[in-house]
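Input/output pair, single chain:
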Amino acid sequence: MATVRLSLQECEAICKKALSKAGLNDAATKIISENITKAERDGCRSHGLFRLPGYCMALQSGRANGKALPEVKNIAPSCVLSDARGGFATPACLAGQSLLVEKAKTNGVAVLLIRRAFHFAALWPDVEPLAAKHGLVAMAFLNSQAFVAHWPGGLHRMYGTNPMAFACPRRSADGLSDKPFVFDQATSFMARGDMTLAAQSGESIPPDAAIDQHGQKTSDPSAGLKGALLPMAGHKGTCLALMVELLAASFTGDAYAFEAAATSGGDTLPTQHGEVILAIDPERCSAGGGREAFLQRVEALFDMVQAEAKEAEAAGGSLRLPSQRRWANRKRAMEEGFEGFEVSEALMSQCVALGE
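Output:
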């Protein structure tokens, strides 16, 4: 597969041209372009430039409203509603974030509900700043299009890949660390974007990742794309997928994955879904003595993990924390002499053409 190398600045410029031409308003264009570029910076290929055609398709088809501006409502002492009004989720998340933080620091716990939104991005950007900038523990839950079968036994797509993300603040020598503990994972065996990338590059997928159209497990990503993804860890992943559906759709009043599939006409265009973000302030909610005591306890756990990592390395193995690779990629991208990232020539041409 032929590849080309792009700088982060080139990536952002390509995104802005394509999104603007597709009809997205200026404010959202800036936010989405930065989000895609950050994903590439951090080595998250499945949510980087690969997602740009999907954003543009949603706009060009009329599914997504490119002119929509999110509307934020204060609906309860600990609850914020950000209505994307048929636009994208990331601008709606940012619009409601300041009020979410204010409520969490006032009440100890607060919830941000995002509804009528299209979500193509990684989920970790929705929680990372809450931990890194505001010292909050944050969780996010998002239901998505029906791509995942109920397992064991299911034959058809029932749930979304239904990702969830978690962020916990950490301490540095001069206060809050800009590298909190963060993870973002689908409740499916793998993300659909990763399976699509595998199909494009001719790679196989693990045998427990998907079933084909006949309900049989397959290692062929193309067959899996025609069939259904499987939940991670069998029935345990099914439970988590159900939990995310209940949180993200029931509270926001948005569609469950199966409802969205029934109204989409069977096409591959995106559908609107809900997202729930929970923020907890350790200063008010920690029984051990506020934020500082909480952070001390957090670091005690990570000290133990790091000690285990050193022991594993000495024995010839390796152990890393979730988000550790992301921080390493980010650090490398910020260093002088960074030569950009590789992207397939075909994807590059497609994305450039979207802006012409």
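The domain at 3-63+331-354 is CATH 1.10.1530.10 (Hypothetical Oxidoreductase Yiak; Chain: A, domain 1). Residues 78 and 110 are 5 Å apart (CA to CA).
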